[in-house]
């Protein structure tokens, strides 16, 4: 049943007068009477008694009024819930990304968004770019942060929004020969803060797992340089890799976002870069929460790019 007749009937019961109820609702009295007659026909019962002073509810009218009020309250609660969701007062956002995104990009984004919309809830999944893309395609995630290109089945349904260019930088154990002390002579050395592949070819190497986007960037650069790395350990997350390097296990390449500004060694044989992007299904309108998340993510990325 439409809600408008229920609202009209509720107002008639409150006013106990058809003319006053019509004036309150902004309709004509004959139109309001027609609504009441239709309700009575639909229900097969008389809802109102006409009196000299207005109208009174019959017993059937009193029963119907209680249920009408319940129905209107439920409908209005649903309307408010939708408005809250659209207004970012409530709702959830499902995001996926790799180690760099989840550990170093997303915390600031979530903090900024929750400071404005504390009712939002977040589901964050840390997996590789291929798994993120597949989850977005299946609808399990609202959006993802991946390394381009995306090479998975049905990737054509994905919209790609460039986010930020990342650089992989070499980190070495304390006291390592590539980590020379900060002296006036070294500060004037143009090669300071950098390395060449021949410098690390025989070094024990702590690497990301095979099949990850970062590992693919490193492997491609190594093949191009014609060198072979001595991989002694493979890990998925950045912080364990940094800990292994700090413990002297070997050297490693990690995102610049995982390091203090200016830290790490760049590759003189060609900078190791990758393009990070936001992906979402192009055939689905993002929710208000997802759209706000994407805007904040782009703003955060712009700040990081300037750092």
CATH topology-level fold name of the largest domain = D-Maltodextrin-Binding Protein, domain 2
What's the SSE pattern?
Answer: HHHEEHEHEHEEHEHEHEHEEEH
- The level-1 CATH class of the largest domain: Alpha Beta
Strand order of the largest sheet: 4-3-5-12-6-10
Helicity level, as a percent range?
A: 40-55%
Number of domains: 3
Q: Average pLDDT across residues?
A: 89
Radius of gyration using CA atoms only: 32 Å
**Low-confidence residue ranges:** 182-188
The CATH homologous superfamily of the largest domain corresponds to Periplasmic binding protein-like II
Number-wise, the strands total 12
Calculate the terminal CA-CA distance, rounded to whole Å.
Answer: 59 Å
Topology:
Layout (H helix, E strand, L loop, with lengths): L2 H13 L2 H8 L3 H15 L4 E4 L2 E4 L1 H28 L5 E6 L1 H18 L4 E6 L2 H10 L4 E5 L10 E14 L12 H4 L6 E2 L1 H4 L3 E5 L4 H13 L4 E6 L2 H9 L5 E4 L10 E2 L4 E10 L6 H19 L1
Helix pairs in contact: 1-2, 1-4, 2-3, 5-11
Walk me through this protein's architecture.
It is a single chain. The protein is α/β, with parallel strands linked by helices and about 300 residues long. It folds into three domains: about 5-85, Winged helix-like DNA-binding domain superfamily/Winged helix DNA-binding domain (Arc Repressor Mutant, subunit A); about 90-165 and about 275-305, D-Maltodextrin-Binding Protein, domain 2; about 165-275, D-Maltodextrin-Binding Protein, domain 2, CATH 3.40.190.10. The protein is built from eleven helices and twelve strands. The strands form four sheets. A six-stranded mixed beta sheet has the order 4-3-5-12-6-10, sandwiched between helices. Strands 1-2 form a two-stranded antiparallel ribbon. The radius of gyration is 32 Å and the shape is rod-shaped.
């Amino acid at each position: 049943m439409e809600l408008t007749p229920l609202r009209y009937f509720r107002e008639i019961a409150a006013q106990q007068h058809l003319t006053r109820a019509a004036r309150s609702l902004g309709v004509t009295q004959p139109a309001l009477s027609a609504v009441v007659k239709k309700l009575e026909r639909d229900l097969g019962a008389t809802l109102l008694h006409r009196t000299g002073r207005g109208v009174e509810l019959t017993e059937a009218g009193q029963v119907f009024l209680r249920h009408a009020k319940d129905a209107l309250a439920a409908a209005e609660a649903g309307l408010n819930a939708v408005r809250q969701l659209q207004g970012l007062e409530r709702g959830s956002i499902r995001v996926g990304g790799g180690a760099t995104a989840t550990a170093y990009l997303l915390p600031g984004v979530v903090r900024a968004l929750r400071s404005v919309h504390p009712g939002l809830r977040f589901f964050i999944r840390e997996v590789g770019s291929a798994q993120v893309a597949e989850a977005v395609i299946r609808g399990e995630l609202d959006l993802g942060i991946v390394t381009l290109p995306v090479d998975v089945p049905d990737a054509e349904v994905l919209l790609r929004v460039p986010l930020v260019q990342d650089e992989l930088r070499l980190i070495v154990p304390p006291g390592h020969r590539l980590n020379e002390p900060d002296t006036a002579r070294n500060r004037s050395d143009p090669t300071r803060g950098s390395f060449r592949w021949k410098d690390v070819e025989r070094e024990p190497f702590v690497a990301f797992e095979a099949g990850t986007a970062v590992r693919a960037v490193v492997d491609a650069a190594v093949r191009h340089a014609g060198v072979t790395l001595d991989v002694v350990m493979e890990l998925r997350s950045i912080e364990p890799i940094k800990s292994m390097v700090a413990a002297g296990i070997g050297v490693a390449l990690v995102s610049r976002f995982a390091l203090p500004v200016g830290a790490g060694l760049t590759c003189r044989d060609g900078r190791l870069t990758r393009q990070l992007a936001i992906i979402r299904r192009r055939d689905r309108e993002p929710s208000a929460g997802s759209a706000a998340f994407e805007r904040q993510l782009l703003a955060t990325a712009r700040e990081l790019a300037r750092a």
